[in-house]
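Entry type: protein chain
Record version: 2
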Amino acid sequence: MKKEDLLNDDFLKQFKTGEELTSFLKSIQKRGIEKMLEGELDAHLDYTKHQPSDTTNSRNGYSSKKVKTTLGETNIKVPRDREASFNPMLVPKRTNMVDGIENVIISLYAKGMSNSDIEEQIREVYDFDVSTSTISRITDKVTNDIVAWQNRPLEPVYLITWMDGIAFKVRENSKVINKTMYIAVGLRRDGKKEVLGLWLGKNESAAFWMSVLTDIKARGVQDLLITATDNLNGFTDTIKNVFPESKTQICVVHQIRNACRYVVWKDKKEFTKDMKNIYDAPTKRAAKAALDDFAQKWESKYSYAIKSWRDNWEELTAFYEFPIEIRKIIYTTNLIENLNGKIRKYTKNKLSFPTDEAVMKSTFLALREATKKWSIPIRNWGIILNQFLTIFEKRVQL
């Protein structure tokens, strides 16, 4: 039957209920699975059915197996061989699920559902039981994917690299403590974004970022042209130790938050408005003049805020060295903060994680969901690439 016939309204009208349609689709799926298993056995034996062969191994009938699929449970015939060496990839021995339902379970887990919630959802939608231990076993398969992904080779150069951390509560030695998931996102030379890795450590520190950057370098990165970070103490020096030529831009939004931390409520609106004159200035010289005006008005009352601007001035104003198009994407760490927000959305149902492995698994799966649409270059990529080639010609072409 052709696909077009399946989609035809007249064809669908013959099914009076949803159950009848589901039953028909299950029969189609059953036939498809059995045909694929026959194909797998052909490849295993290296000859097709009824074809002469010189091998000692041969077909040996069928066994019956109940499997769970996205359409519910169904009984299928699994072909056997005389040597019992055939282990189909579609429905491996000692398992009763096809890939489709496992992918559903992993997708639900990635979206933040607990094992017990997934168990209930599978029961309601597909009308069969999957134990929480089975769900855990299925999602644990992701661990191998994480290891391979964490150790994959990276590009030799990234034009912009955003770095930030996200806090999680994790159980350790019978106590729940805060840990930080360190995340780095790089802009490649083809204009596409790439998450370089995930690293779990204690509270965010420049010392741990050193190990992150060292790992990135060990996996093949020779140069980070521009890094966009929060204003964590010592972060810029840490980057310089590993990538000496990298230009660091401290996130202005982080700076604004930190500067406002000790401002009383009644002053906050006016204080924030005056501060906007600094980072909205057209040139670095104009920004410095705006900072001087800002300090003259507020330094006697909020000296800490003025000091934080002055102490980080070079890194806060690095974006002025670049054209407008590049400025817009290094000005803040919004890109990675938006990514963190999506990870939070998927993991918000988990108040704490039982192990480091559990938080890594959840974050990795959430990240995979959140970055599905990262398949095209960033906006205005042609213009931005030409600007990078003009400014960093030799370094871009590493």
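Comment: Strands lie at 59-69, 72-81, 157-172, 175-187, 193-201, 223-229, 247-250.
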